[in-house]
Amino acid sequence: MNGDAKPTNEEEKTDTVPVNQPTAEELRQKRLERLAALEASTAASNADVASAPTPPPVQRPPPANQVKAITPAPIEHGNHGPSPQLSNAPDLTKRKSSTRRDPLHNALQQILGVTLTESHAGPTFVYVATDSDTINSDNLSEVLYLRLLVDDPTYSSALEYLFAVYQRVRTESSGLNDADRLVVQSVQEQCINYSVTCLLEPEMFPSKVTPLEAFDALVRSPNASTSSYLEALAAGLEAQGGNAAVGRVGGPILQKLVSEVFLGSQSILAVESWSSPIQTIGSLVRIKGFATVFTNIPGFLLTPPLNGRRLQDATALGILLRFSTDAPDPAIKDLFANITKRSSRVDVNKSVESLRSKLSLLHNIVTDIFRSLLKGGAHSKTRTIQWLEQAMVVNVEGSKENPNPALVSTAGMLINLNVVLLRLCGPFLPPSTKHALIDATFWKCCSSPLFPQDTTKLVAPSSSSEQQQPAPPSAALASFNFITQCFFLTLRAVHIGPVATIGKYMRLLRQLSYMQNHMDDDPRGRAQFEMLAATKMIIDAKLLQPELLHDLVRFALLSANVTCRLCLSPNGNAVALAGLDLLPLVTPADALLVPSVPEHVVEDILSIMLFVARFAPDELKSFEFGDFLTMALIFLSSPQLIRSPHLRAKMSECLFEMCLPSHESEDRPTAAIPSAVAVLVQSKLAQQHLAPSLLALYGDVEQTGFYEKLEHRWESQSPQWLSLDEAVREQKQSLLAEKERTVTSSLQLANETIHMMSYLTSEIQAPFLTAELEDRLVGMLNSVLVKLAGPRGLDLKVTNPEVYKFRPKVMLREIVETILHFSQYESFQLAVATNGLYDASVYRKCAGILQRTQVVDAAKVAAFDSFAQTVEDLFKSNTQDEAMLGDIPDEFMDPLLWQLMKEPVTLPSGYVVDRATITQHLMNDASDPFTRSPLTVDQLVPNAALKAQIQAWVAAQHK
Predict the structure, then answer these.
(1) Strands 941-942 vs 912-914: parallel, antiparallel or unpaired
(2) What angle is formed at CA 75 by the lines to CA 69 and CA 79, rounded to 5 degrees?
(3) Spans of biased composition, class Basic and acidic residues (predicted)?
(4) CB of 423 closer than 8 Å to CB of 367
(5) Model-level pTM?
(6) C-alpha count within 13 angstroms, C-beta hemisphere, residue 303
(7) Strand locations in 829-955, DSSP E?
(8) What are the tens digits of pLDDT across the range 246-296?
(9) Of the CATH numbers 3.30.365.10, 3.20.20.150, 3.90.226.10, 3.30.40.10, which one belongs to the domain with range 891-958?
């Protein structure tokens, strides 16, 4: 400007252009001149910077290589007038005065909080002396720089002032023309550049607090401008000194915030203690630069010793996730104190909802942190996935029934982690089709210890495949796409988190049931019951969260889909399940990925579905269960793909809980899931394969003794409490209670089995009339009839039979209905008459009971009476035939059942048995009963010669 005439307002509006970027050397020289002028004891009035004597050496000038990086926003560089001064500026009366104030000047004055007129200085505007009476694009950078040199009590630091200026740009830029608005907006860029200078060169500007303290205060008081300011600041820091510069500023703040969370209250109820620092961490890591810094702070990844407890207490993410209802907080226990004495459940529900609301707040904040870290660049994403993998590996103890609490993270922390992972899986969970990107070869190729090598697999590899000794897996978890990584991390997390807690919850319910029945016998039991009831409600708060259950079901259904792919494709590729019609599958397990899959993957799916169906069935009503039904049908019909009959039995239990309408079971408290029933009814696969698969399953579980249950009892052995006689009495009572539970469980099973048999045979009879099933069915029916109506039927009188689920009339009715379903078949009539348990008097007595009790209508009573008479006639005829045969040659007798063979077959071992006998045996055990070598039905060779001899001998005996 140097004395040149100032342009008019019109010229200003026309000629104002965006600020040009000066060179680094120009800015460096300019700053040195300013510092020299400020340090001079006296200044010549109206002295020009160019003619000023050479200043003494500046003690703290920034090096040239640093000045370049921290250059403030550019200003238009040209021939500048006299150097602006502070309060000791030269006499301004000689300066050309102007009263003109254009909109740009007014806006910049409000934004910067400065005035160029000394008489206007006050609390709002700080006086800055320059050789101009307006603020414009020419002197904007100078004015801002001079303002930063003022020690203003209004702001504790230059950084605080710069952020305030940054914010005011948003409100003061309205009403300006485009050119002026560009100048105003350039203030934000200059604020960022000067903020970088403040943080990296703290001695440059006066401040009452350290720059890091100022930055700490800034990030803890967020507003609408904080996010954009921090993002621009991180970019400026990175441009100056790379990640190291960002870490120099952000690292100490993030470590301090994590320390505050760690040292504060561990109670989930203390929201005011933990929410603020965690939210501040979340606001910082949304910015990529700070996300990288967070994943590099000391203690982000776990260092030895490696265990779940240290992961929770010694890593940043573990500390953020550890808040739950597990903490030993008396306030949480007080929420459920004297729970059995409360007048209504409303208070209890309010307490549960209070806990859930605080857990939900934590889940929302921490989930956002994980999302930010995964989106914060390659380094941040890699480190976060490494921590997740580490969390699964060090918590392997969590899958045990009674884990060591010193080695495993708390159940609450693991559930919190599951909530986060399930939400991360949300974008590819059904109905999304992105799950097709899941790479199922992970099971065979991944070298990650995510799933321990000693985990039981779905099916054992054959001896031939073991001899091949495939190359060990070599692919790291990081080599798979993110969807695959996220799916398998969540798959493992569900096993050690919610599923493990479900097992603990079910054991707690059994213990509560036992104690409730014995509370009156021991006053001390009530206090124990109160404690356990409170524990149950605390677990309810975290485990029965509707959102968690909903996400668990979604993930379980996706897992079912992936499991189906493993059974249908050699590489587990996505396949169409809707048109599947190839059951049972004949592909050998060794040709698939199934031998590499842990057994708990399928068991976890079933555990989740069973738990939700029993305790929160409404959460299932919005889902489609086609993939789940397909998985169940594949494993039920193709047992070569799954070694455990227990898992197949659990599948049938799931189908029962989800699909059986409420009127089909007097014990079921809720109706069936409509969508599950619809899928089952409409499925052609289910119509063709479900019934025979379930029948085969019943044979398998009968062989393995599946229904023997382990009972867990709590015993007190303190001799100070009980005398020996009382101990013996309690032991007997405990044994009796155990027997009562066993009887109740067995009767419930019997009720459902008999009902299912009656229901199935009402429409389907042919499969039950095969040689291998008919005799077994008849034996079961005769056995129940003899127990209900036989000589010892009176011994079955029970006090309060409904307590034990004993319903003899219902049993009798359904057994009779089942018999009537087959009454017209001659083979069935003969099988009843020749069965060893047949007793004509029992059938006659049974007909009388039916007529007296009217549990069936008169037509069925008449039909049963007619059937009983027909069978009795056959029994007499068969008895005469046996007497006529006399002593049967040993070579004609079946060696297993010692009865006359009708269709002899030769086994590979050379033994000869009746076909019906050996096929019954093979249903339970696919081995030769004599040599224990493997045996299948197609290996049986008909012995036509022996059959002809038997027939000839029988004919001769009848003559």
Answers:
(1) unpaired
(2) 115
(3) 25-36
(4) yes
(5) 0.72
(6) 4
(7) 904-906, 912-914, 941-942
(8) 999 999 999 999 999 999 988 899 999 999 999 999 999 999 999 999 999
(9) 3.30.40.10
